[in-house]
Amino acid sequence: MKRLFDWVLAVLTAPMFVGCGADFDPGSRVVGTRVVAVVVDQPYAHPGETVKVDAQALDTLGRPLEWGFVTCFAPRATTPFACFQKIAEDAAGGTLPALTIGPSNTYSYTVPADALARLPVEARPSAYVGVLIVTCPGKIQPGDTQGLPLACVADGRALRLDEFEVGVKRVFLREKDRNQNPVIAKVNWDGVEWPEGEVKEVSPCGSSTENRYDRCDGGEKHVVAAILGAGVRETGTDELGNPFTEDVAIQHYATEGLFEYDARIGDRPETGWVARAGASGKTVTLWFVARDNRGGVGWTSRRVKVR
After folding, report:
1. 265-270, long-range: CB within 8 Å, 24+ apart, which pairs?
2. Any idea of the CA torsion for 92, 98, 99, 104, to the nearest 10 degrees?
3. Residue 92 pLDDT
4. Using an 8 Å Cβ cutoff, are 40 and 169 in contact?
């Protein structure tokens, strides 16, 4: 199954990948078509509100991206298959949401005014709208891709599911509650603030092309850190009477190079980064994506020139 765009607490397992014997591309490396963040302006939306979706992605082969957006109301699971199944069920009942296709990575959706009222009381605490997002380095067409009712056609063929992106972003529904997206206040490079427009310059590893941070000899290893803004970790009691304190993680992505840890918790954001030999002569983009465990997302990026 392709990556979904919702919270995954990778922080607890990230150290397991350091020093692993298998030499495979780390999850932090952006190769081909990749969505790195999906931000909604209201992670907790109220009935009748219009929610704006902003997806951040790129294709490392330089192919233009076509986007597809469609919503599914209260699907049984957060997978694309479940979302399409719910769309089919709604269509059988006379409601057919349209798949919006085009070059824009933004989308707006208005929550029905009766979205919560139509649900049983016991289902309302977990109510959400699924925004299904297709990111295709070509053209989105009707078809069948491993059970999904669409195709992404590029380079003269229908791509496999692992060659483009299909995922679901959840927008939770509440009567009163809100959730603010986490804010990355600044990024540090070796403990000093790294302004957004500044391009760092580094030397890469020697001849090694391994995917192990600890075996990158001769390269400049630097410590990077996305620093969260004050008060990012929200705490309180929700409208259902449940106390909460948010967890916030920072996930890291780059078009090349190796992170010491692909993910860190917000209170300890520091991680090492080094450029591999194959990045010599390139300008690498690094992304820092903050995710809270209530659906909030914030992101920023920086660039590094490799000698």
Report:
1. 265/11, 266/182, 266/228, 266/232, 266/233, 266/290, 269/225, 269/226, 269/227, 269/228, 270/188, 270/223, 270/224, 270/225
2. -160
3. 87
4. yes
Beta-carbon count within 10 A of 146 CB: 11
Please name which of 132, 137, 119, 144 lies closest in space to residue 62, comparing C-alpha atoms: 137
Tokens 């992304």 belong to 287
Task: Break the chain into its structural domains and give their ranges.
Answer: 44-173, 184-306
| Strand-pair category, 297-306 with 199-202 | parallel
First to last CA, the chain: 37
3-state secondary structure of 99: coil
Q: Which residues of 152-188 are buried (b: 16+ CB within 10 A; e: fewer)?
A: bbbeeebbeeebbbbbbbbbbbbeebebbbbebeebe
Cα–Cα nearest to 228, from 285, 179, 268, 197: 268
Return the SS3 of 294.
coil
Q: Quick one: pLDDT at residue 11? A: 29
- In the structure encoding, which two tokens stand for residue 31, read together? 């190769």
Tokens representing 4 are 């979904």
CATH code of 184-306, in short, is: 2.60.40
Q: What one-character DSSP code corresponds to residue 122?
A: G
Give the start-end residues of each E strand in 94-206: 100-102, 106-110, 128-136, 139-141, 151-154, 157-158, 165-173, 184-189, 192-193, 199-202
Closest by CA position to 204, among listed 112, 298, 282: 282
- Average pLDDT by stretches of 10, the chain with 307 residues: 31 32 76 97 98 97 97 93 92 83 97 94 94 98 94 96 96 97 98 98 84 88 97 95 96 97 97 95 98 97 97
pLDDT computed for residue 17 by the predictor = 31
Please name the residues in contact with 18: beta carbons below 8 A apart, sequence gap of 6 or more: 212, 213, 214, 260, 261
Q: Which residues pair with 187 in a beta bridge?
A: 226
Q: How far apart are CA 246 and CA 132, in angstroms?
A: 25
